Amino acid sequence: MKKGILLVNLGSPDSPNPKDVKKYLGEFLMDERVIDIPLVARTALVKGIILNTRPKQSAAAYKKIWWDEGSPLIVLSERLQKKIQKQVEQPVVLAMRYGSMTIKKGLQELVDKGVDEVLLFPLYPQFAMATTETITVLAEELRQQHFPNLKIESVPAFYNKPDYIEVLSNSIKKHLEGKNHEHLLFSYHGVPERHIRKSDVTKSHCKIDKSCCVTPSKAHEFCYKHQCLEVTRLVAEKLKFKEGTYSTSFQSRLGFDPWLQPYTDRTIERLGKQGIKNMAIVTPAFVSDCLETLEEIAMEGQEIFHEMGGNDFTTVPCLNDDEEFVALLSKWINTWSKTPVKIS
Ligand SMILES: C=CC1=C(C)c2cc3[nH]c(cc4nc(cc5[nH]c(cc1n2)c(C)c5CCC(=O)O)C(CCC(=O)O)=C4C)c(C)c3C=C
Ligand SMILES: [Fe+2]
Ligand SMILES: [Fe+2]
């Protein structure tokens, strides 16, 4: 048996031009695990409404953050893959759930290298139907259709692994050294509340209130909200943050349905209004910096804070290709490579 690793991130458009952004958003938003409504309604909403207006607006945002080498999310994911490859003997390939660097091409590349056992590694610390699940489901469909002899094992969400929390905490500490911030906001990508209820394996636990996510339950294995709150709690515990000096919020909502709250933009507004002058923000739902961190947080968030009277706004970068993070992922991969047991 020859083993190989497929790292998978979200993906980006091929360029920040409206035509490419429209193509990318069309694929992304037509995913039934992202906009989870029946096909006819989803087609009407995405193709009839969203794709007529959003691509122009999103393209303008992408243009502000695009690098000479390409999309930050792709470039940073490639840097991560290259560094991991240096520490792992087996082939490590990178794919994206949406866009040109498809999971099918990634699996094909591994098969062409003689691989027959794949570790599928979704680059998301927390489980979500719209991220981890859509990757594992698509990989399995592709396996059945095109690679029936391939064995695929998936890495589950790693939000509470002590070594991950340590690496994240070290990075936060390093980037906040000497900043004297009064408040640290942990901002996670949002999801519609409906997604949380759908992923509840017990079908009765999730109430989207202040109690369910802190009451032990089997549901938490697939509860994005619980997993985000846990990352905040574990980092705060590790770094001995004082109560009231940090909080959690959710960003990037789309549409009119309720998404996880409190919303990041309103939280930044509130902190500014409350008289906080020096705040910092960290975005642990993303492994790689991307549109959501570089534009929505570092640009728009900062603007909101300044409008509300705030002064210093520090953004902690994502783990990207941080040396400790590379060493951690390589360690997990090497553990899997040596023993045919699940990483858990
Ligand atoms: C934790 C990661 C993510 C979750 C969960 C997620 C859910 C989700 N997202 C949308 C809609 C959009 N997301 C967009 C960009 C975007 N989303 C993520 C991650 C998660 N999304 C990333 C990393 C990015 C940036 C990609 C990049 O190229 O840098 C966008 C496009 C930008 C925009 O127009 O705002 C949309 C739209 C939904 C509906 C959703 C549902 C659960
Ligand atoms: Fe998103
Ligand atoms: Fe909950």
UniProtKB/TrEMBL annotation:
Under which pathway is this protein filed? Answer: Porphyrin-containing compound metabolism; protoheme biosynthesis; protoheme from protoporphyrin-IX: step 1/1
Q: What class of enzyme is it?
A: lyase
Question: Where is it located?
Answer: Cytoplasm
Sorted alphabetically, the keyword list is:
Cytoplasm, Heme biosynthesis, Iron, Lyase, Metal-binding, Porphyrin biosynthesis
Enzyme Commission number(s) of this protein: 4.98.1.1
Record-linked InterPro entries: Ferrochelatase, Ferrochelatase_C, Ferrochelatase_N
Q: What is its main location?
A: cytoplasm
Q: Which organism is it from?
A: Algibacter agarivorans
Q: Which family does it belong to?
A: Belongs to the ferrochelatase family.
Q: Which residues bind Fe(2+)?
A: H189, E292
- What name goes with this protein? Ferrochelatase
Q: Which reaction does it catalyse?
A: Fe-coproporphyrin III + 2 H(+) = coproporphyrin III + Fe(2+); heme b + 2 H(+) = protoporphyrin IX + Fe(2+)
Q: Name one Pfam family in it.
A: Ferrochelatase
Q: What does this protein do?
A: Catalyzes the ferrous insertion into protoporphyrin IX.
Lineage, uppermost ranks: Bacteria, Pseudomonadati, Bacteroidota, Flavobacteriia, Flavobacteriales
Q: Which gene encodes it?
A: hemH
